[in-house]
Amino acid sequence: MMRGSRNQQGEEDVQTPFLQTSGIQDPPPFSVQGLRFKWLVWGLVGVLELTFETGLAMRTTPLIASYKEHLCAKTSRGVDTPIINCQRDHSIASELALILGVFQLLECLPMLLLSGIYGNMADKYGRRPILFLSYLGLVLSSMWTTGVVWLVPRMPLKLVWIGPVFTLIGGGASVSLAILMTSAAAVAPSTQRVSVFSFIHGTALVAAILGFGLSSATMASLGNYAAQLVGLALMSLALCLSLLLPTGEAAHPLASDPELDSTSEYTNILVSNRHAVIRSYNDLLQIRNTIPLLIAGFFATLGQRVQILILLYMPEQFSISFSEANTFIILDHVSNLLVLFIGLPLANVLILRWWNFNSRRKDIALALISSALSLAGALLLSFAPNVTAAFFGIIVFGTGIGLSSLLQSIFVGLFPLERAAFATTLISTIKSVGGTFSGPVYSYVFALSLDLDRVLQGLPFIVSAACFVIVASVLITMAKTPRVRRDIM
Questions:
Q1: pLDDT per residue over 426-446, tens digit each?
Q2: How far is CA 394 from CA 262, 290, 440, 454, 471, in A?
Q3: Hey, CA dihedral for 199, 428, 109, 458, is it positive or negative?
Q4: In the prediction, which pLDDT does 255 show?
Q5: CA 6, 12, 17 angle in degrees (round to 5)?
Q6: Residue 17, preceding peptide bond in cis (omega within 30° of 0)
Q7: N or C: which end of the chain has fewer CB within 10 A?
Q8: Is residue 308 within a helix (H) or strand (E), and if so which, with residue range?
Q9: C-alpha to C-alpha distance for 90 and 76, rounded to whole angstroms
Q10: CA nearest 53: which of 236, 239, 237, 235?
Q11: Residue 423 CA, distance from chain mean position
Q12: pLDDT at 412
């Protein structure tokens, strides 16, 4: 499935509930050596993100095109059906959507289940080995899918579903992204950390734009398989470069009284942590609007992930090639880049200056605007009569990119400061669940829309629009309710 969604993940939140803050402290006072080390780490993180994400983006479209070619060849084998007619066969598109939807589900499960475990391991054993493992699992998964494509028809195409099993090594894309963010933030003063995260996100978006653009050019000149190999080579290069990342400080146990029994201390820590978790969930039930916001986070992610269908929907709807459909992905990421680094900061300043909102009301206002833009974009895409209208729709849809991070900011702001980590973990997990289910949901809806034979061809985008209606309803309700106190006992 399209892993361009990783850009939206990284982008809006790191879906890893995890890397402890003990290793992220303000660096020592200024020194030339420290300054060089800081820029070395930032430069290496940028190179790793750019190289790996470019390779990942380069593989996406040619891989889907190869899947469809093999499905067409399988359907045409033994019957007198020209390949060009097969390309317009709705049954082929439905089967392709099923393969990609299940792949998306299987790909997200390791991230959802293992990200916390690998995050703790990174804190304990250092970031470099876990980053290497995460990249290794992703590279092995890509090698497997490339091998299956090479060996079809001698082996079933659905064997690509085994690929995500390799991401059990390292926990998947969210772990590597979180480690890069943690490594960059560890050498930055606290006042610069937001800029560091924005830099990494911007690098991921630039890599996606570059990767999809290169894949279009490579597919046209060298074919689908060569484009996949070039992308795999870039991912493998990032795997090797990850060994250059500074190890990072492993978590050290707190100093303790030598007379204290270690078993008793460990038991006390477990009891204390259990009580803290119970208190946090009690807060969740007591603080107004937390449950509706979690629901909104789920549907916001589900609505935004309709982008995974763009490379299937546009060729089917407008009879364009996969390389031409790449233009939609590029436009979407360009819109994301402009909004995140120009639109949202400017809107923040204008809202605070003109309407004198507090931080919470400002975030709610921006989230409402983002959800409205996403809703409008989804509706434009669902009813677009031609490619030009669809281009306009994807640009409008891309301007709603800030919705997820704004919802996270609102949600975390409802909790006491000492519960901020719990709140961040919770809403990130809920959004991960939304991303996990997006593949099966949209593959089923897409297949259903094909069965309706163009009566509701844009049904996936209508489902996406309905998700944003739910999000907007929650935000409007919140805007009408007074802010709750944060002094929960």
A1: 787 788 888 888 989 998 999
A2: 58, 31, 22, 20, 19
A3: negative
A4: 43
A5: 85
A6: no
A7: C
A8: none
A9: 14
A10: 235
A11: 19
A12: 80
Pairwise CA distance, residues 412 & 420, whole Å = 6
Apex 326 CA angle, 320 and 330, nearest 5: 140
478/482 Cα distance (integer angstroms): 8
- CB burial of 105-122 (b: ≥16 within 10 Å; e: otherwise) equals bbbbbbbbebbbebbbbb
Query: What tens digit of pLDDT does each residue of 383-421 get?
Result: 999 999 999 999 999 999 889 888 888 888 887 776 766
- Amino acid letter, 196: V
Amino acid at the residue 341: F
Closest CA to 390 of 378, 404, 406, 408: 378
- Which segments of the chain have a pLDDT < 50? 1, 4-5, 9-26, 81, 84, 250-273, 484-489
In this predicted structure, what is the pLDDT of residue 38? 82
Q: To 5 degrees, how large is the angle CA 245–CA 247–CA 250?
A: 150
| CA-based torsion, 315, 439, 402, 462: positive or negative | positive
Question: What pLDDT score was predicted for residue 413?
Answer: 81
Report how far apart, in Å, the C-alpha atoms of 328 and of each of 24, 306, 311 are.
38, 13, 8
Q: Are 445 and 288 in contact (CB under 8 A)?
A: no
Residue 322: its pLDDT value, please? 87
- In the chain, the domains with their CATH numbers are 1-250 (1.20.1250.20), 275-489 (1.20.1250.20)
DSSP codes of every residue in 133-171: HHHHHHHHHHHHHHHHHHHTTSS-GGGGGGGGGGGGTT-
Nearest to 52 by CA among 203, 221, 243, 223: 203
CB neighbours of 469 closer than 8 A, spacing ≥ 6? 375
pTM (2 d.p.): 0.78
Number of H helices, E strands in the chain: 18, 0
Dihedral sign for Cα atoms in the order 63, 65, 68, 74: negative
